[in-house]
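Example (one chain per record):
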Amino acid sequence: MGTQTVHLSSVEELLKSASERTQLADFGPAQFRENLDQLVASLLRTGAFTEQGLRQTREELTTLLCHRLQIQDWLTRYPEITSEQVHSPVFTTGLPRSGTTLLHHLFDHDDRLRLLRTWETSQPCPPPGFAPETIPQRMEDTRRRIAQVWQATVAGFDAIHM
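Predicted structure:
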């Protein structure tokens, strides 16, 4: 598979795609636009992607814009959540295969901590009409999406992550 100069959609097309996907239009305060414009301009100017990389980049940008729309909608419907406080957050970062997953699992055994789950980060807002009994399906949907992406892009992924 060769490389090609990236032909990302314009920022306006990405915004439109996210709005159509979510049926939402309010992106909230416009400060994010300058950074998004710069990111897309940089990708257009310097990016050389495989066809798969191009598809993933478009999809990732659109997904993040969908999240922004959903979060803004959630904040509009439930403004009281902005008064919630998170005390003493702990952030785990590290290179792949460096033990961060093990550390994450160790933290999970401490009842004083509330871990952010992968399915929560991939779907930051509950869907309209949310009911707690839908959580297992949201978890499975996330697991399936992640597995599909990795299996399509990383040779031997299943052997690494059994």
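Caption: Helices lie at 11-22, 32-46, 51-77, 100-108, 118-122, 135-153, 157-160.
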